[in-house]
Structures are given as C-alpha cells and as structure tokens.
Hints:
The structure is a single chain. The chain is built from three helices and seven strands. By secondary structure, it is of the alpha+beta class. It has two domains: 40-75 and 129-167, PH-domain like (Roll); 79-126. Helix content is 33%, strand content 24%. The relative contact order is 0.16.
Amino acid sequence: MAFCGNCGTSLSGPFCMNCGTPSGASPAVAQPATPPQEQCFFDEAGVFVSNSRFITPSQTYAMSGVTSVGTTITTASKKGPLILIGLGALAVIGAFLGGGPKDFPSVIAVLLCVGMIALGIFWFTKRVPTYAVVLRSASGEAEATTSKDKDLILRIVVGLNDAIVHRG
C-alpha cells in the first residue's frame, strides 16, 4: 500500500484525500528562513552599531532589547589643580613676607613656587569631562561606553538611533 509523502496518510487515488498532494510527489521540505541582512550604522574607534548588535570594546548588546539611547556627562574634578595653585601662591607670598633683607627668598624657592602654580594651571586646563552612551531597556539603564571625545559619543548615539528606527 502507498502512503502520502507529505502527511503519511494511505493513498487510494492519484491525490491524497487528506492534504491533496499528488501521489507521486516527494515530501515538502521546510526551507530555513533567510536571516535579515545586518546593516551597519556606525563602525569607528572599536565601536560597531548595526540593526541587530551594538559592540563596544568591553561588551556586546542586542539591539532588540534597546528601547532608547542617551548621553551623560561627568565633569572632571578640578580640586587637585586648584589646591596645587593655592599652595604655590601661598608659598610665594610666604617667601616674600619672611622678614628683612637677610631673609629675602632665594631665586630657586620662588621659581619652585611659580612652577607649582604653572603646573596647577596646566593640570587645570587638561581636566576635561567624560561623555557616555547610555542604553535604556525594559530592565533599566546601562552605561555602554565612555570617551573624552564628545563628537565620537554623539556619532555613536546617531548610529544607535538610526538602528532603532530601522528596526521599527
């Protein structure tokens, strides 16, 4: 006795009475669905953003879970440089208020104090904020990546927003 190659029912004619497949047909083989093409929205400085993944140097995030994206700014503390400048200024004042001509400060002491002030000013100007990409999902917020380069962080955020919009 012959059986249907599609559903396994016994055949009594040219077509299966259960599913309608011709009696000489081979079983239908399910074809795997082709995965959607991954589209790149950002690839720079070790960071990659596509419609399915967000890869940072330390972690990979699935874009399917990301609901929104934003930035944060952490300002650098300037206490250290200000303390160094203040100590240098106090040392210079103290050197000149020491007393009479025999106590007049040496050139080396004054130069060291001025050097402290200059170093403090240099340190103060080099203190820049840190910018971060913040991912929001149903499970909360995550600081994904940080940089001192504000423009880089903004380009990453634009790439992430484009990926979210593309995802729909």
